[in-house]
Amino acid sequence: MSIDAAPTPSPFLTGLLTPVTDERDDRDLEVIGEIPAGLNGMFVRNGPNPQFAPMGAYHPFDGDGMVHAIYLEDGVARYRNRYVESKGLLAERKRGKACFGGLAELAHIDPEVQAEAGFMKNTSNTHTLRHAGKLFALMEAGQPTELTRELETIGEYDYDGRLVGPMTAHPKIDPATGELHFFGYSPFPPYLRYHVVDAAGNLIHSTDIELPNPVMMHDFAITERHVLFLDSPAIFDVTAAMAGGPIMRWDEEAGTRIGVLPRGGDGADIRWFEVDPFYVVHVFNAWEDGDRIELRAPRFAHMPGGFQFDDPHGREAPYPWRWSIDLASGTVSDAQTDDRGGEFPRVNDNLAGTETRYLYNSLARTWEFEFEFHGVVKYDTVTGDAVEHFYGESEASGEHAFAPNADGTAEDDGWLLSIVTDR
Description:
This protein is mainly β and 423 residues long.
């Protein structure tokens, strides 16, 4: 399988973002050093990787999902990668060309293609999820796509018809209950919907949440008793997109709100807290301390460049931030916690929704969209200390996932995993 040359040059199909053109099965990978005895399992990476040249302008969110897995078993590593074979991709393979537009340029979809695959391709190109014995590839504009452990595509999954609308690419699993919490947003009403799946994989709760505008809400947070939503002024403008303009706009006058909803609650029960305008792409974590909720995340002062490339603010770095939400007084205080710009924040997921001492963030050389990371920082929220690790000048890394040591007892007993490549 290969990608054709793009009809127009795109910076998002070159360099670190050059599409991978083959599906591989590589066994017994060379190991430099030693794989720790307690490190076993799958390290899975998902990302956009278009098989066919785009119909027109290409946005980096448009590419077909390609899932890469490194299997670690008793000191031996093997690698496998596969396209997420969406209905849209299968329709394109049948015709030997791209059939869908994207965020950068909407396109008319051939009625025959639309009958086979819908009006939009569910690329499932953003993240992965393992829950209730199933493995999914995720993209926030579509329903989850189920995969086998060997990354073969099973198909879209709708929880026995109970899931209406899309699933965020960043759902949260409560490590204490095994429940899965997630939301879906849409540029069309209802703009926001919240769902809960029990530990056995049954969708048990859904509710609509009213928003004044259709906004891009990429991530959210859970605590022991609440879910937190971030209503920022990154607003969809489908009318402008249909006329050839950008599909997203930043309307600072609309402001930003943090919504706090009891877990499993009705949308009408949400409390909104107004704060200065900002945007959060991903969160570290959130937790409760009595009537106070602590939220940690890298904060963008404006809409990130990946949403609107001609915005001069789009190349500004996000900085680690904390928000303290006082449920009793109805007030919010906030502060920057460090001056290192970083993104793709992570914690030990075994503590999701509860207080975490250690936070991990990827550090970037540049804040052009491709997020060329060159290191990682570990924050100690108790002592205020920070420890950095940087890769070589010729290397670039991705997100750093924390793999806990199954035999460990300390929060930071484990390993950070990332795929590092030549620039």
